[in-house]
């Protein structure tokens, strides 16, 4: 077994420029969030979910957070924070361990928002 590293195995340091949504972007992604929330709510209702529209909130915020992350927008972190806080609400009173996990995720998302906001200001 060789300890040599192939040239293609060496990774370049990752560099990206964080972007910031303008008001049109906010409008677009908030409308898309509402569409996903309602669409998934009706999908859950069709399979007789007990809380279809409450459960679909996190589907919408997760989906938009992922889209914004792919586009390198700092606002993704707002959607991650919303996802985590709403998940805490959904688990309130039923599972303390899962709530604790989402509190940690929320703190991580706040740090992410802070870091990406600094990155946007540098760009």
Automatic annotation (TrEMBL):
<keyword id="KW-0813">Transport</keyword>
<dbReference type="Pfam" id="PF04973">
    <property type="entry name" value="NMN_transporter"/>
</dbReference>
<dbReference type="GO" id="GO:0005886">
    <property type="term" value="C:plasma membrane"/>
</dbReference>
<keyword id="KW-1003">Cell membrane</keyword>
<feature type="transmembrane region" description="Helical">
    <location>
        <begin position="26"/>
        <end position="44"/>
    </location>
</feature>
<keyword id="KW-0472">Membrane</keyword>
<keyword id="KW-0812">Transmembrane</keyword>
<keyword id="KW-1133">Transmembrane helix</keyword>
<feature type="transmembrane region" description="Helical">
    <location>
        <begin position="77"/>
        <end position="94"/>
    </location>
</feature>
<comment type="similarity">
    <text>Belongs to the nicotinamide ribonucleoside (NR) uptake permease (TC 4.B.1) family.</text>
</comment>
<dbReference type="InterPro" id="IPR006419">
    <property type="entry name" value="NMN_transpt_PnuC"/>
</dbReference>
<dbReference type="GO" id="GO:0034257">
    <property type="term" value="F:nicotinamide riboside transmembrane transporter activity"/>
</dbReference>
<protein>
    <submittedName>
        <fullName>Nicotinamide riboside transporter PnuC</fullName>
    </submittedName>
</protein>
